[in-house]
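Quick one, tokens below:
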């Protein structure tokens, strides 16, 4: 299957989709227009976002349709020549009176169905990013242990050892937030399914709402961090390979190319920040951090838990300072820093929890990641605390 959303003039701005859907006499629809950058574009079944309401110009005029390739009417104009992900064709499609069925209700294509599809896809890219980070770590470790320089494996040199430790810590942090986000989605979806079979009690509806909110908050956070880390880890893997990493003989060269799309497709990291910042300003992240802080952790991690508590205090100060400006533009300017601060703290707590339950697997990663996160949170806090709002214009293009 494929999800046919983007067009030459409608990438992230899906409200601008113009592929036209016209009702036919037999109760079906006819689709006309062009879709671009469609993953698996020559698939058998397509979910197509199209403009069903004549004269409309925004998302309220868009509906979702199901197209079956066996009905004809769609041609692949080109297969994109991509940097990476060569195992999956990305196509430009031309629809000419293509027969399609309405999916769900009219006018809900973007505001309901695409949002649900995108959240699922973003969780999928999170998992893909974790997998790529794992592959990069495996390649880096294997090469660092086997490559000898000056009479010993390069893994024994402190600079390389630190790189490997950071790769592992960020990999474990990525997997932790992937699993946590998937847990929130699962619980919400379970209650949603039960709600179709019977009426939920007040307490059940409240729990479903809670997990829906957490899933909505954690999905952009997880996608943003893990996709950026996949790029970092692929970069570090090539660096550890040295000159060999620049050659196609080694897997890390492919991983480096494949990683680059992770923080672009299904919404760039910048769009993930846009989705996440409201959960900073409404306190969703802080409330969940405070829940994590109530748990019992290994005595060996007492110092690192104290660091997470101090990081949380800096985060609260930064959020309050930005909100006190009462300027949406100012909040947007600092959005990336605030979202990253929340992410470092959340993943730090998740790793500390993992290390408390399974120290042989996660203790080192928890310590490394919390130390790293502490430095990043302090850096963002310092920037926000010392920033002169009058300088904001200097950052405009």
């Amino acid at each position: 299957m494929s999800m046919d959303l983007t067009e030459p003039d409608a990438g992230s701005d899906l409200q601008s989709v113009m592929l036209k859907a016209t009702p036919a006499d037999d109760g079906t629809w006819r689709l006309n227009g062009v879709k671009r950058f469609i993953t698996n574009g020559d698939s058998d079944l397509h979910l197509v976002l199209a403009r069903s309401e004549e004269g409309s110009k925004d998302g309220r005029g868009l509906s979702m349709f199901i197209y079956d390739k066996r009905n004809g009417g769609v041609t692949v104009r080109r297969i994109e020549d991509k940097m990476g992900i060569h195992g999956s064709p990305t196509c430009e499609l031309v629809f000419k009176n293509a027969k399609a069925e309405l999916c769900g209700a009219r006018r809900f294509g973007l505001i309901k169905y695409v949002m649900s599809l995108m959240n699922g896809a973003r969780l999928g890219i999170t998992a893909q990013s974790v997998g790529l980070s794992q592959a990069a770590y495996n390649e880096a470790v294997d090469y660092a242990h086997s490559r000898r320089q000056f009479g010993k494996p390069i893994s024994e040199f402190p600079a390389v050892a630190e790189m490997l430790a950071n790769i592992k810590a960020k990999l474990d942090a990525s997997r932790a937030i992937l699993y946590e986000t998937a847990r929130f989605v699962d619980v919400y979806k379970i209650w949603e399914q039960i709600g179709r079979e019977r009426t939920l009690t007040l307490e059940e509806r409240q729990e479903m709402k809670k997990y829906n909110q957490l899933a909505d908050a954690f999905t952009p956070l997880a996608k943003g961090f893990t996709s950026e880390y996949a790029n970092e880890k692929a970069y570090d893997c090539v660096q550890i390979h040295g000159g060999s990493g620049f050659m196609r003989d080694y897997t890390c060269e492919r991983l480096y190319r494949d990683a680059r799309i992770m923080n672009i497709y299904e919404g760039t990291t910048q769009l993930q920040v846009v989705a996440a910042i409201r959960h900073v300003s409404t306190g969703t992240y802080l409330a969940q951090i405070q829940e994590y802080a109530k748990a019992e952790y290994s005595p060996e991690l007492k110092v690192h838990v104290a660091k997470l508590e101090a990081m949380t205090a800096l985060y609260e100060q930064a959020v309050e300072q930005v909100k006190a400006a009462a300027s949406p533009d100012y909040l947007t300017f600092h959005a990336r820093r605030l979202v990253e601060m929340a992410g470092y703290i959340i993943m730090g707590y998740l790793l500390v929890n993992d290390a408390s339950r399974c120290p042989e697997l996660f203790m080192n990663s928890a310590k490394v990641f919390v130390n790293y996160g502490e430095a990043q949170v302090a850096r963002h806090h310092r920037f926000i605390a010392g920033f002169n709002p009058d300088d904001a214009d200097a950052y405009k293009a």
